[in-house]
Protein 1
Amino acid sequence: MATPPSRPAADLNTVDAFAQFSFLVQGTLERRAGEREISIVQTRLLGILRDRQPTMNELARLLELDKSSVTGLVDRAERRGLVERAPSTSDRRVVQVGLTAEGRALVTDVAARFEADVSAMVESLSTSDRATLVRLLGRVLVAHANGRAAV
Amino acid sequence: MATPPSRPAADLNTVDAFAQFSFLVQGTLERRAGEREISIVQTRLLGILRDRQPTMNELARLLELDKSSVTGLVDRAERRGLVERAPSTSDRRVVQVGLTAEGRALVTDVAARFEADVSAMVESLSTSDRATLVRLLGRVLVAHANGRAAV
DNA sequence: TATTGTTATACTCTATAACTATA
DNA sequence: TATAGTTATAGAGTATAACAATA
């Protein structure tokens, strides 16, 4: 567990496979985002905002961060012109956060770079193996989401 | 891409599946390590040291960090009694880093907690599906390692 | 001269606690 | 009183540049 992606042993157990794969994907995303001078968490923030204008509170829940952490995160993104705060019309305590055109362009670019990496990762798999892999990963994700919901 | 693991859509594409799965695994590992008051990168450091006594330089390469970052990382781990620096016998510039008994016990404990989570994640898959998933993840990891080596 | 590691510095990211404004 | 968000503060993590010791 937590061993670096540089040593993918011949016979991986499930734990090592999951850990090493997650480090590989995260490292790839970090590298691509870094090319546009943005961190992973900032990329996640922009990714969430692509189809929503959540409140600070909702962002904290979605990112699983303290609300004060989100304040700083949005501060830095706003300073770079990537997101905008707007006061809610219904509740004057509430702030809604949205992407600027520049933020949207940036997250689109990072997503495209990352997508190229993912394509390269599955290049050696047959079409059928790719579909199987995505299907099984999806089942793990859904099972986890349902487990959480049930609790 | 980079959307939070809280929304595993019904039909995932490869990019979303990879990203969401990696965030799920990393979040799980972070939570378990956090129970022992340790960060992911500290966990990775201890994980590497389980079967090696690398130099600071080698650690920087394995963790893909600047050597100055590793200095701080090892400083904090050493202050907590988890690792030890030892001077190399052959080259007096070189420092070798190793686990203390306490560090080994800690990383073993975190690994066990994480392993339980991984088991739960694949609980809904049949034995054969689990094997297939691990095999396909392994092929992606090996292909990536070979690609890097070839370059 | 080149390499190993540390130090100084600056920034991002994160949480806790205290605070303000609004409900 | 309760909730939404910010501020103050402290610490981890990271990189760049300059440095000391050794090769």
Note: Chain A touches chain B through 62 residues (CB under 8 Å).
Protein 2
Amino acid sequence: MPELPEVETTRRGIAPYLEGQAVQSLLVRESRLRWPIPAHLTSTLAGAQVLQVSRRGKFLLIQTDRGTALSHLGMSGSLRVLTRPEAPEKHDHFDLITDAGSIIRYRDPRRFGALLWAGEDHSTHPMIARMGPEPLSDDFDGQHLFAHSRGRKGAVKNFIMNGEIVVGVGNIYACESLFSAAIHPRRPAGRISLARYELLADEIKKVLAKAIEMGGTTLRDFVNGSGQAGYFKQSLNVYDREGQPCVGCAKPIRREVIGQRSTYFCAGCQR
DNA sequence: AGACAGACCTGTGAGC
DNA sequence: TGCTCACAGGTCTGTC
């Protein structure tokens, strides 16, 4: 489910209800996520002051005066704000409740998400330490992609989805940015010119920024902090459009499996 | 080092 | 209606 734009949309939705607030309690109904929710978190977070809610890659960072909680939404996770209590449903695994009475509720049917504790310096946490640059930062550009791709024979699509190269580019936005840059997803990463990587980096930035603006992509179940769907699906050029005409050349969009993931592209426009 | 398959888990929709 | 199968936004782990 959530790629960077969906995580950022979530961050913006929940931050106003958490920043500057004290945590009253963490209520865990199901601790078996991708990794178990640490048992100490309930007591560690009770009474903590939330300083800031930020994001690194697809992790949400809830920074408190006692350390930082990391939350990942996995494939099917969502966090939303309840301003009044609602009966929890089957896959509502934890609630973070503030002194002001807001409930931040985590739902995740597939349980690929996570809630972890990073202590004081989250940048050294194993989940964070090896991450590549943020795609929307100045540290990420065509030169970066070019330099790290030399000698690599794997498909460029897998290369840009590798979080040690750049974070936050998941299956949807990898397909979309490769289409916009007219690069075939199977092209070996090491055989793409600097000029084409400069275009690709620009398209990655553009597609992610536009998706954030539109509140993310809802394919089936993504909801923002208020429980609403995102609107970027209407802007998808190739993803989930197998057989439909390419917006550029009208040839049918193709779907092939690359790196065990469905990949959508136009064989006419992308080389 | 890097490329690839397998693993984790539940729900949904298509086809029979 | 109900069964089986393929597939779904991620990413860690193990093997070659």
Note: Chain A is about 25% helix and 20% strand.
